[in-house]
Amino acid sequence: ILDTNFPKWGYGAIVIDEPNSSWVKSKDYLELLNLCVEELGVYYIDSGQIYGDSESVTGKWFATDLGKNSRNNLIVGSKVSGRDDPSEAPNPLTSEYVFNTAKRSLEKINVECMDIYWLHGPDPDTPWKETLEGFDRVVKEGIAKEIGMSNVSSQEIREILQICDRYGLIRP
Fold it and tell me: What pLDDT, on a 0 to 100 scale, did the predictor assign at position 95?
């Protein structure tokens, strides 16, 4: 699914309902998703743990007729960041934390399986192997089809791939 056919247009499900933000409000969010899918040709919806209510409101959209009818034509993803709110101290990205957060994201987004689940950024205090074991379990238990890494360096990617190969973990 995630090869050269990855969509050129995607919708980043930004933070919604932040009181001090000019971003989208939940009352307009469903209409915005309808517009993206019906008229703009968006085929990828990207959310994240730290994006406020965006996962839950995206889940409400997937409960609508258009959302249900569009699911097979969309790539759906979310990200684990270690915190639900930017003001929180980040949680360690342990295997259990990554897995449990992915399960919650899946429930909120209201789809059978996410197409991709991303690491939003590295946790310098948790060993890569520990974090990657959580991502491995996310795929093996059917929460997401693929995993991806965001905001990591080329050196970190090399290290991630080496760890995955050494321990038989699914590669991003």
Answer: 98
CA 15, 143, 107, 11 dihedral sign is positive
Could you say which residues of the chain have pLDDT below 50?
A: 1
Q: Which pLDDT does position 5 carry in this prediction?
A: 65
Side-chain-facing half-sphere of 44: CA atoms under 13 Å: 15
Whether pTM > 0.85 for this model: the answer is yes
Other CB atoms within 10 A of residue 128 CB: 19
Query: 55: which 2 tokens?
Result: 């996962």
What residues have CB less than 8 Å from 124, skipping those under 6 apart?
Answer: none
pLDDT (0 to 100) of residue 13? 78
Locate 10 and state its tokens: 């995607």
Say if residues 107 and 78 touch (Cβ distance below 8 Å): no
**Helices marked H in 89-127 — which ranges?**
95-109
Angle at the Cα of 75 from the Cα atoms of 11 and 14, rounded to 5 degrees: 25
- Residue among 54, 62, 116 at smallest CA distance from 85: 54
Sheet of strand 75-80: strand arrangement: 10-12, 44-46, 75-80, 114-119, 144-149
